[in-house]
Design brief:
By secondary structure, the chain is an alpha/beta fold. It has 3 domains: 321 residues, TIM Barrel; 194 residues, Rossmann fold; 119 residues, Immunoglobulins (Immunoglobulin-like), CATH 2.60.40. It has 21 helices and 25 strands. The longest helix is centred in the first third of the chain and has 24 residues.
Length: 695
């Protein structure tokens, strides 16, 4: 059912509501209207990387890990699985009259904010630092969640609109100041694509202000851009408590009643919170009209009609409960976990390890047996978990396996000797370091550790000191160390450990079966294809102030220094090259570029082809490079294939100081390869990208 058709049905139904009933439907805990046969409905549901907070579900890799696949097709398949499980769970919830929170079909995912600062705890929920990658992954996720049938399989909601990426400690009263250029070049494109390309039916406003206006009551973000310029059709929901912030923390209004009226008139249909209970007061004081109340209710009921709630035979009601965490979804999950792993170092091809060549392996570290690092945040709960220790046992089943925690995440120095003992007894040590969602994440969800993190944000990029000590001690008793870092963000393990380790894998929060994927990678059951969706800076690098939203010297697009590991970087077990790039066709909107890809190594593998643009313009600052296309080539050893990448001209435009997109006045150079065309990537990969000049 199309939105316009659903809206007409919704308007006819909402006409039957009293004003009081209409207002009641604008709160996320919408009560039943029994006289009209309408059940209660709770709009708050989560599905960031699996149906969350509602019991058993497939727990896929955290969003930042999925982004490391650089594969929008994979993201779509994952989202299809999530929405299938959502319907399976919803069908049973309705059957047993359970309509509580987290049991519905309106999911407040994906998070398509830009991970502009590596300290942000919620960056793990995003698709990284690049607007093209975020837009591509976000659209694929939305399309997978919503489906392509007559009715929505589930309703996606893009958040947090807009210009929102920390600091967590200040989010309720913070004013994010961004130029029109930075907004149009970096912060808004993913939302624009979510609306115009993917047809997302929900948008969630952020807590903060942007350029002085609260994001859930912004005449510019909401009125001028979202509803006006982009023509958004759907519902707008506040982040939870954000409308209360308008008065209490932004001091933008003089009362909650004024805040409720301002948000509603700006286009916020649904309040996650309780401030919209003041809308009746606002109505009685003529601050809002009956028409404005009914319009908001109609937007919400249009979504419920699109989900098929009021159909005689509810759509997707035949999806059985057996679809939840089923074998097919587990197979997809291990595939996603494999694709998210990024190999950062592999000295003298130390990896892969033959399962028969090593008689003993130790698995040491605070994340060796951790379940929380498999889950990430905003997660469900799997019916099975495979930690790294479990995975090593399964894959290297003929080896003697020693397991030791070695330290806790933030303390536990008394455990180091046991870690050293395990490492000294083994031929090779898999050292599992990193963070967890108990350290980095959302305000209120993490413990604060003085000097290391605050309200979920990190204060440093280094490992926690106790883990740094553990790693150095382990490297002092054995030469054969494989470091596995599990974290939702960039972590610098320090020069001493980087130099000592034979191999380094960044595994993110890799999903319920992620430990098996790590073990399979170490054993060479597949060649790694994951790439970094964020820049890794050295811990010693002086970062820009967290509160500064200017993009100067932020992310690979504008950073002029030498990163530790660049955006787009990752190693393989074989030798891929992009040998030629040719313009195949061009129309007013799209370029098609044919790239010849070769596997010159001795192993089969998958190569993620990245296409970057360098736009030259005399009128405005342009990114150093801009990712603008992606392709996936599966190649046998010795095989060559041609793949065709489609490039929207949207990403080949220069954004001027007024935020207008225009063609560059001095041409475009495209670069195709397995990494971005910066000198650091060329140095690490020992290969340059192929170039194509577009006049």
């Amino acid at each position: 059912m199309k939105y316009d058709e659903a809206l007409e049905k919704a308007k006819k139904l909402v006409e039957k509501f009293t004003v009081e009933e209409a207002v009641s439907q604008l709160l996320y805990e919408s009560p039943a209207i029994e006289r009209l046969g309408i059940h209660e409905y709770n709009w708050w549901n989560e599905a960031l990387h699996g149906v969350a907070r509602a019991g058993t579900a497939t727990v896929f890799p955290q969003a930042i890990g999925l982004a490391a696949s650089f594969d929008p097709v994979l993201i779509n398949r994952v989202a299809c699985a999530i929405s299938t499980e959502a319907r399976a769970k919803y069908n049973q919830s309705v059957r047993f009259e359970d309509r509580d929170i987290y049991k519905g079909l309106t999911f407040w995912s994906p998070n398509i904010n830009i991970f502009r600062d590596p300290r942000w705890g919620r960056g793990q929920e995003t698709f990284g630092e690049d607007p093209f990658l975020t837009a591509s992954m976000g659209c694929s996720f939305i399309e997978g969640i919503q489906g392509d049938g007559e009715f929505l399989r589930a309703a996606a909601c893009a958040k947090h609109y807009a210009v929102h990426s920390g600091p967590e400690a200040k989010r309720h009263g913070f004013d994010a100041k961004a130029s029109e250029k930075d907004m149009r070049e970096t912060y808004l494109p993913a939302f624009e694509w979510a609306v115009k390309k993917a047809g997302v039916v929900g948008i969630m406003g952020a807590y903060n202000r942007t350029n002085g206006e609260p994001c859930c009551a912004s005449s510019h973000l909401m009125g001028d851009i979202l509803y006006g310029e982009w023509g958004f059709k759907g519902y707008f929901v506040s982040d939870c408590g954000a409308i209360a912030d308008i008065y209490e923390n932004h001091h933008f209004t003089k009362s909650h009643t004024e805040s409720a009226a301002l948000a509603l008139k700006s286009g916020c249909d649904l309040n996650c919170g309780g401030v919209y209970r003041h809308l009746l007061e606002a109505y009685e004081e003529d601050l809002v009209s009956e028409e404005e109340i009914r319009t908001a209710a109609s937007h919400l009921y249009a979504i419920r009609f699109m989900l098929g709630e009021f159909e005689e035979k509810r759509p997707y009601s035949d999806i059985p409960f057996s679809a939840v965490d089923c074998d097919a979804h587990r197979r997809l999950n291990i595939e996603a976990s494999r694709d998210c792993l990024v190999l950062l170092k592999n000295e003298n091809d130390f990896l892969p390890l033959s399962p028969t060549d090593f008689h003993s392996i130790s698995v040491v570290g605070p994340n060796a047996m951790s379940l929380s690092v498999l889950e990430g945040n905003y997660n469900g709960h799997s019916s099975e978990y495979i930690t790294v220790a479990d995975g090593i046992r399964r894959v290297f089943d003929s080896s003697e396996i020693y397991i030791a925690e070695g330290s806790h995440l933030m303390d536990g120095s008394n455990l180091i000797s046991t870690g050293k003992a395990a490492a000294a007894a083994a031929d090779v040590t898999v050292l599992c370091l990193g963070l967890s969602p108990t350290i980095e994440g959302e305000e209120g969800s993490c413990a604060d550790f003085e000097g290391y993190c605050c309200k979920g944000d990190k204060n440093t990029l280094r490992l926690p000191p106790i883990q740094q000590r553990l790693a150095e001690e382990i490297c002092s008793v054995t030469d054969n160390v494989v470091v596995v870092v599990m974290a939702g963000s960039a972590v610098d393990i320090g020069e001493k450990i980087r130099n000592s380790a034979k191999a380094i894998i960044h595994a993110w929060y890799p999903g319920a079966l992620g430990g098996l994927a790590v073990a399979q990678l170490i054993a060479g059951e597949f060649s790694p294809s994951g790439r970094l969706p964020v820049t890794f800076f050295k811990e010693s690098e002086e970062l820009r102030p967290f509160e500064d939203y200017s993009m100067e010297e932020r992310t690979y697009r504008f950073y002029t220094g030498k990163p530790l590991y660049p955006f787009g970087y990752g190693l393989d077990y074989t030798d891929f090259s992009c040998d030629d790039a040719v313009l195949v066709s061009e129309d007013s909107d799209v370029l098609k570029i044919r790239v010849s890809v070769s596997n010159r190594g001795k192993r089969d593998g998958t190569h993620i082809v990245q296409l970057y643009a360098r736009m030259m313009d005399s009128r405005a600052r342009t990114p150093l490079f801009q990712l603008c296309g992606l392709g996936r080539a599966e190649l046998r050893a010795g095989e060559t294939k041609d793949i065709v990448l489609e490039v929207s001209k949207y990403w080949l435009c220069v954004v001027d100081d007024d935020g207008k997109r225009r063609a560059p006045d001095s041409g475009i150079t495209l670069f195709a390869g397995g990494h971005q065309p910066d000198e650091r990537s060329n140095e690490l990969c020992a290969r340059r990208c192929v170039e194509l000049r577009i006049e």
